[in-house]
Structure formats: structure tokens, C-alpha cells
User: Fold this.
Amino acid sequence: MFIGHYAPAAALKPLSPKVPLWHLFVAVQFLDYLWSVLIIAGVERARIVPGFLEASDLDLYFMPYTHSLAAAIFWSLIGAAAYRLMINARAGLPGAILVCIAIFSHWLGDLLVHAEDLALWPGSDVKLGLGLWSSLTISKGVELGLFLGGFILYLGGTSPKGAIGRIAPAVVTAAMIGIEIYAVIGTPPADIRIFAALALVSYSLIAGLAAWLDSVRSPRRR
Ligand SMILES: [Zn+2]
Assistant:
């Protein structure tokens, strides 16, 4: 799952003007940021197997510290605490709760699409995954639906500051769908560490786009 992960970030943003959209964009990919770093460091393991699932070439066979259910809960709480204490104290407890939900939403998104590779806890033999990635049409349809739904809630909860604020949502949507299409039709890198590095770069670029989008729109007055 790629753009679908951003649906909760977009949907949650209107609930707190004190939490920038890009913070939520980083939060929903926080587990994958950690995953990318641990893959590059060789602590977690995965390999590229062309045709592994119809919509994914990733065989994610060892990622207990970032993608087990216990790890996802742990990182959601740690991330929320760090957000409250160090990153954005101004957003208060409500902001930290939004960040907690955003971080954990990543695991639920992965649960939908992954093969059975999400362990309950590190070392557990029980692995979960509903496997939507085994169908390209269904998984991409669900992902696009989630993304557009989240984005519509964001647009409903904010208003444009000017002409740029009116066209910016279309620009960001097109860029994100473009990256998704590239990920589907492009050839994956042979080395999983390059894949992880590319993930870090693309998540950060998208967070930058979110910061720009947020700067040209303001919270809607109720
Ligand atoms: Zn993930």
C-alpha cells in the first residue's frame, strides 16, 4: 500500500489546526521510515521477488521490529509521546492522539494488502495479512478509493487561501497518483536496500508536497 496510507492523514488533519498536514504524512509512514532504515542496516530482511503477488514484488519475510502488531502499537505510543513532549507540544494531547492514530493506521492499511507477513509480536508464528495485493485491480481500486475519500475530507475541512490554494490539491493528487503508477509499471530495483532508500526519498518528497499544500490552504471556520 502506498497512497492509501495517506487517507487517514488527510482525513484527520481538519480535526486539529495545530498539527501540520506534513506531520501526519510522516506519521502514517512512520513504520515504513523505520522499516527502510532497518532494511538498509540489515536488521530487518526482505527481498524482491518479481511476481511475488500480482500487485507487489516484495517478499517481506522478516520485519518484527517495525511491522508486528505489538511493534506497531509500541511505535504509535512512542511517536505520540515524542510528539507531545518534544516535536509539537503546542498541539497538546489532542494532537498527540491524532499522531498516535495516524501511526497505527499504517499497520491497518498494511493488514489489508499484505500477504500473511505481519506477526502478532516479534517471535510470534502467527502472521496476519488479508492479501489484497494478490489482485492488482482490487488492491489499487481500494487504495485509490481510500486516498480520494481522505482527500475529500481534507478539502471539506480546509479552504483555499487564493488561486494557488484552489489548484494545489489537484497538483498534489496528480503527483501522488503519478508516483503510484510509476511504482506499478516501473521495474523494481534488484537490491532491497535501494528500494528502501527510494522509499525514504519518496515519502519525504510527499511530506514536502503536503507542507506546501497546507501552506496555501487554511482551516475552515465552523
Ligand atoms: Zn508498511
